[in-house]
## 1
Amino acid sequence: MTESVRKILHLDLDAFYPSVEKLDNPEIVDKPVIVGGIGPRGVVASACYLARRFKVHSALPTAVALRRCPGGVYLRPRFDRYRELSTEIFSIYREWTERVQPLSMDEAFLDVSNHEASGEAIAGRIRQQVLDATGLTVSAGVAHNKFLAKLASDHEKPDGLTVIPENGAIEWLAPLPVRRLWGVGPATAAKLEEAGVHTIGDIDKVEDGFLRGVVGNLAERLKRLSMGLDDREVSPPGRPRSISAETTFERDIRSWKAAAPHVQRFAERVAAGLERRDLVARTVVLKVRYGDFHTITRSSTPSVPVASRDEILAVARELARRAERPPTAGIRLIGLGVQNLLDLVEVGEESGATTPDQLDLF
Amino acid sequence: MKFSVQREHLENELQFLQGIAEKKKTIPILSNILMSADVENLSLVATDLEVSLTTRCPASVEDAGGITVSSKKLSEVVRSLPSGDIHMSSDNGEWLEVRAGDSYFRLVALPVTDFPEVPSTHFEGAVQLPHAIFREMIRRTLFAVTKEDVRYSLNGALLEIGDGVIRMVATDAHRLALVEKTDAEVGTQAQVRAIIPKKALAEIRDLGEPETMAFAQDDHHLYFQIEHRVLATRVIEGQFPAYEKVIPEGNPASVRFSAEAMAAALRRVSLLASERSRAVKFSFATGGATITSSNPEMGEARESLPLAYEGDEITVSFNAQYILDFLSVSTTDEVDIDLKDDSSQGLMKPVSDEDDLKYNYVIMPMRL
């Protein structure tokens, strides 16, 4: 494949739910509009930009929002209506490319590399089309990969268009706080801050070994992201059903130790496949074919979906224990795969609603 | 080999063996049971390599011998026959012939020599353990064993015996059930700390209701003799988590409630909890509790439960199913839950310890 620069757009509808409400009811256009659970225990699903000035944001308990913004208009979500508009807007996106990866009702990645026109020009056209068709504004980020495109769309929200040029990515990223990196949550951010790594530029400056000491296996990915590198593809919903890797040995192997380097390699490959498509896996499958061609598969579905090489390996090790015969019986082929794939967003943010987190005893 | 047995005797034993024999066909011989006839007995064995059951039933034996046949097929055949004598025979070990009344069956057999050797022990001078107590302990812990988890050591319950104490602990890392019998007459010979697979626990519970069962162990196996049946189970290798450390002590708030009223309220409120998390939220305040659930796609539910609680208000979310699991095995009308805050473990226990069994159930909250 020839190395050509990709053109990736991240399109994010501005305050989607409240904007739809304002669209349908012009009387509230100039009012702070908050959509979410009403009642003493509801939470805010989305707040318009006026409401955000009162420090009202999604996931805030509605009771708190009411205190901060007593003059606001509080509405229950009308998901059917949002879905209807979302479908209309996504069909505009699909006029430009088949490679549309929806992240939620109001967010999507588009790969428009096939067009002659610049990413910026296409993003501008799409923004105008959405506005004309629905009256809604969409913020766009344009870059050569998903990570940068997503950062860019956030840069001048609402109603913004930001382009990160390929040769300007590092400068663009340098001043941003580390938590803006994909995969850095509050816990990792705290660790990095403590180690004196505050901005994305700081990550670029510190030694690899030092970074590894602070964040472990995440180091390599952070380093790459800090340099603006991200090769994940825009993957349209028809997501793969499974990702796997396997090999047949030239001569039967007779110990798990001999299999280990292969299994590690497969786990890496499978994890990379998941990461590229923003997926996580519920089920891990180990396949073993013995010297006599008798083949077994063992699968496990841990309580928490897996994504990283180490998580997949941990399950693979347990699966190996459940193999029918000891490896001394002679193993001809070994394979490792994942199934029951889920979108990362599906697991994580579930359309802005707060998913409770079951805490662990140990 | 040639013998006769009574249908009722054989059917009764086959039922237990069916629970052990492999349902999957990965290793065909493991779906079979081993039958050996000698003198006045038919001995029967099933194994899945982890858990094995050896039992017998009275038989009139003409020619001694052995054979292995599909546990499932044989059970179906025996169950279908009318009450009375069943005659079984085999000439060369390739077929098992079954005759009863006017019926005749010929079942494919596999060689006896292919059947795995099942671990065995002698029970001379073995420790006697109270079976009823064991049954009750299993009933109160089995549900908390993890369904399937990466952590191998959680796929069973921890059994500890020593110094007059029998203890069973099961956990799935989110909740933990611990049941303990003190002043048990277990002698000093029995010193056990082993993780027993889920399947073995269910068998120990179901294999009969004798007063006591004999217990023995070796390096990798535990043996239980229940009536004339012997269950051998491999112990699960691995480190069971340090359960002692997660049982909270001195939680400041203690709430007492009716098990029945709470279970009924939870069943209603959890109807609108998210199907995946089953999270419900409790707000305990002076005079009562409010239990709520909400699901952005479905709606909300709320119920008030009057309680004799006095103290600071505590709001905490739990998986409703975890609480219902406990309430369904707890034997007292009233139950206590001791709480600290919304992210520390809650401790549930029956108000009085029936049958001298000390029962603790620890659950971790969910964070919203």
## 2
Amino acid sequence: MAISPVTIDEHSSPLSAEQAAQLTSLIQSLSPAQTTWISGYLAGLNAHASMGEVVRPEASAPAAAPAEPLTVLYGSQTGNAEDIAEQLVARAEAEGLSAKAIDMLDYKPRDLKKEKNVVICVSTHGEGDPPDNAEELHEFIYGKKAPKLDGLKFSVLAFGDSSYEHFCQTGRDFDAQLEKLGATRVVERKDLDVDFDDAAEAWIGDVVARFKDELGAGEAEAGHANVTALPGTAEQPAASQWSRKNPYQAELLTNAVLNGRGSDKEVHHIELDTEESGLTWEPGDSLGIIPSNDPQMVDDLIGALGARADDEVTGLDGEVSLAHALTHQYEITTLTRPFIEKYAERAGNDQLNALLSEDARAQLAEYIDGRFIIDLVEDYPIADITGADFVRLLRKLPPRLYSIASSHAANPDEIHLTVAAVRYQTHGRDRHGVASVQLADRSEDAKLPIYIDHNKNFKLPADDAPIIMIGPGTGIAPFRAFMEERAERDATGRNWVFFGAQHFRTDFYYQTDWLRWRNDGLLTRMDVAFSRDQADKVYVQHKLREAGAELFDWIESGATIYVCGDANAMAADVHDALLDIIAENGKLDAEGAAGYLKNLQKEKRYQRDVY
Amino acid sequence: MSDTKNLSPVEHIKLESNHLRGTIAEGLADELTAAISEDDTQLTKFHGFYQQDDRDVRAERKAAKLEPHYQFMVRMRLPAGVLTPEQWLAVDDIAKRYGNGTLRITTRQTFQFHGIPKQNLKPLLQALDRVGLDTRGGCGDDNRNVIANTNPQRSDLHAAVYDWSHRISRHLRWQSRAYDELWLDAEPSDAPETEPLYGESYLPRKFKVAIAIPPENDIDVFANDIGLIAIVEDGELAGFNVAIGGGMGMTHGEPETYPRLATVIGFVDLEHVLAAVETLVTIQRDYGDRKDRKHARFKYTIDDHGIDFIHDQLAERGDIKLEPARDYRFERNGDPLGWTQSDDGNWQLTLFVENGRIADFDDRGLAHYGQYRGRPGHKLMTALRELAKIHKGAIRLTCNHNVIIADIADADRAAIEELVAHYDLDDGRERAPLKYASMSCVAFPTCGLAMAESERYLPSLIAKLENIMADAGLEDEPIVIRMTGCPNGCARPYLGEIGFVGKAPGKYNLYLGAAFDGSRMNKLYRENIGEDEILAELTPLIERFSAEREDGEHFGDFVIRSGVIAATTEGRNFHDNVGPAQAA
Ligand code: SRM
Ligand SMILES: Cc1cc2nc3c(=O)[nH]c(=O)nc-3n(C[C@H](O)[C@H](O)[C@H](O)COP(=O)(O)OP(=O)(O)OC[C@H]3O[C@@H](n4cnc5c(N)ncnc54)[C@H](O)[C@@H]3O)c2cc1C
Ligand SMILES: Cc1cc2nc3c(=O)[nH]c(=O)nc-3n(C[C@H](O)[C@H](O)[C@H](O)COP(=O)(O)O)c2cc1C
Ligand code: SF4
């Protein structure tokens, strides 16, 4: 973002003439990067002010850190737990506590027994599994080497999604296991659903207050360290003022289907206009989109409730029409256990209550599968429920993330996405994914609220380092950004891509880009697996195994391995293939191979972004 | 011979191809693209196939960031267009198994398979090989499929020209082992490889040989580099009149390129036929233009050096002295449809194949995802397969892209007729003389050079013209109509009494005045016009033709006699006095 020469004076601003002059000369001396940093920094200051704190940087004098520091360990895949951990630290330091946030990946498990005060912020991924960077610590506390932790005070903040069966499982694990090892809980664990912002802020309040008592830090340090630890200004690139809570309204530039005629798939190439936004990102980052629901689905649901579209309800920010609330504010499709529980209370239906009993978990899961909220409303109607009552049962419409498929360096004014439209049929109803189908079918109707979801766990290495990119299906998206970036930077590192899809002819996403990069010599090698072009199915993991020896040479010569795409089957199959390749070519046993790969992970040379 | 430094790019590709191998094998193995390397696409032509892409989806695939839908067209070598029923069944199966499920009879009486993915090329060529068929020289700068008259009165004459077509085809075939190594799993050997006839860079351009038996000119003998006209004396084949320098190709807006009819330069007896043909080929090999491919055909070599030069070279190189040409007479260049009997008592059934496209059309008249149209419910491909199953004789393809069920014994006729009736095949019984006398090239969606539709458009235009003919009381009058999607001339449009040559989508140049027997070319009448103008131009001419024609006079002759357009007397004046003649 180029900043045009500005002049601010006392008339056009709330500043004094002197301040205005200073600011003007300062701004004119700034590099874009510096401007971006400052804007993020000031935004941070405001965030604090809004947390009920008057912050005057010049007032923040460095102060002696209290004896017992607070260690905030975070395990995060898509950055939520990490953001909140950073906020927690900032808040704590603002309260005069000395605190630091550490990525579990960079944390020596054995140091745990030296700790006095720990807060765990961890999300759950896979099917109740820890995020990649939490794996090692998670294993450690369950393992034989796990130490006694009598001296440790802890609290756990769990991130999850109540639509998954193992809701916040990893957080629960840490909470239970630390207690087992003798540590004492300071604040009750909080299980956060996808609409976690407010709950998280409240919990942070408790924790900071409680630890403040525990550690008894003096008021003197109030305001200390704001300058060094503000949310969003850590090592993260360019936090412009836009965020999940304050998204940028982006206009659609292009919406094109990437599949050729006759394909069973429907993947869209989406280009959004970010020219005015000042948004910046790095290859590997994702775009957050705050979607809105399908108007048809909203109508149907209102119909099923026997309510009226213009009924007044209390939405997230005051009084709005029922239609507005259901379209823009609440999740009205995905069924979750918590929702069904709340709904059942109002319904008072024995059959439904039975479904919620502990020993009926399997049946409930089966009922939820492939059903939406509207199915529940139709199956177990509540005669007297009003739109207002109903809305109170819903959870906030969570944002969806999409890997950014373009490089900022190559296209500073655009963000490209690769979106698979989710359409399916279950229980006699055509179903749509909320965000993907909004992007596919209605992305022109209105501007799209977006923000950057930075992901420091999916980043390019040094320009001269070789990389291996494994991205079947839409998993290819970030690698297009990687290649654009490396082309832009004339990076000399070798590039090897593994891609897979159903059919060569119709599903080879960005084929013309790949061919161009191969001709330019940027793409060193590309192996493709088209599962349905021959009798027996071929997937990327097969291609990996075929190329095993050479792949191992690449790894030995310092290559970083990236995996992106399907979390359910692909990520595990690829992981196993890598283990076998390492074992075979590295002459290692299963355990040795596992250790080898773990180590790669620690060195950030095995990075995954799966969903 | 040309000095190598300003040779055309294709010449370099041939020279460096290691006898037509290039990097074809590597290209086939490349999994990231359905194409092969650009240079290799020049070489595969010698092996009988072209890289193409489905132009119907070109734009949408670009938008989808997909490469064009690359695919290959494979063209068989089938001298005289004759094949056995067994071979027919194999070809039918191959089209479905490896291609787009349709077959295209070409204007040089062979088959083309369309829509072949590169990984299917080898299995396809092997399947052909198993039934004794190949594609060597189907395309490329070498001798092409040798064509010959398909339906003479006399069966022994057909046997004779059929035999000659094979001998010439074999004699002029390129020798490199590349074909066997690339496609038939032959072991590479380091025995030295030579092209005794062609040499390292083959011919400067494609080369075409045809054999006609007067009075039938169904093969358009004068459109070929070498046309042999059978001369029968005392009931025996005595030899051939030799015609040289025929070719249709030209380029819009480049008058130095022009179609040309072959010049009859004398008579050769049977003993010297091969020698004469070979020597003519070597003259073109050594004197043909290798710098400018648009000026490389034999016709330009001849016009540049003169006929005498050719006679001298024949004498010098092959000690060949042609006798004066003998008398001959052509009557038509179309196919007589339906049943005909030859002197041995056997029957021939000539079936009309619209545009030469063999397919099974669904109830909406669509084939291959609607890319091709035909009569609704017409199961032509199935019908011909069923015929091949019971037929005992040979099957012949014609240069008007029709098919002949040949050598049917009296006893077997009934069974054939039954199938023809059952599948409602078109044996010419309709009252549709324009349709039967019409021909169109392939053009869209496969031809990379097409500027306008041809095969997929002509039928609807013909239908409109037939109404105009009927209104003029000419519903039984044939007019030879030829359409191509570009000026290259693949359906020999300059030999149409009415010729349409594509200029842009929906736009054609209108040519008038060729002779009904293929002995005179037409001339440009109106440039770049759409259907409405085409009909507006032709309606009054057809009415006038109906009113003023002389007895038995053909439309092509009429428009010249009545001064509608000037006559083209030779290739070099094809571009002169074009348009509605001032005199008229
Ligand atoms: C299939 C066929 C038309 C048909 O409707 O049957 C055909 C189809 C093509 N012809 Fe032809 N030509 C066909 C007979 C002809 C004829 C007629 C003839 O030989 O009696 C001519 C005019 C005579 C002549 O050779 O001059 C002919 C003159 C051309 C030319 C122009 C050559 C020239 O001297 O300028 C080209 C373009 C070129 O060679 O550069 C061409 C090129 C082509 C190509 C291969 C386009 C290309 O080069 O990429 C066409 C493939 C279309 C497709 O998708 O199948 N085709 N082509 C005929 C196949 C004949 C065969 O079996 O060998
Ligand atoms: C870090 C990250 C990066 C991502 N990158 C991309 C990307 O680049 N491209 C991309 O397309 N997606 C990407 N995703 C996934 C994306 O965020 C959304 O999850 C996806 O688009 C679906 O969202 P939706 O709102 O359209 O569907 P939703 O309304 O969220 O519905 C999805 C749900 O529908 C149900 N469902 C789906 N199919 C079926 C079926 N056949 N039968 C029964 N139930 C079914 C499942 O419960 C599924 O969870 C990414 C996700 C993450 C976390
Ligand atoms: C592939 C995938 C699998 C997930 N699995 C679970 C799960 O099993 N249980 C759960 O509670 N949440 C699950 N989640 C939801 C995440 O935990 C939730 O989005 C959380 O906010 C992510 O926090 P993070 O950004 O710190 O990783 C899953 C999310 C993804 C993308
Ligand atoms: S005439 Fe032109 S358009 Fe028609 S097939 Fe030949 S090259 Fe293609």
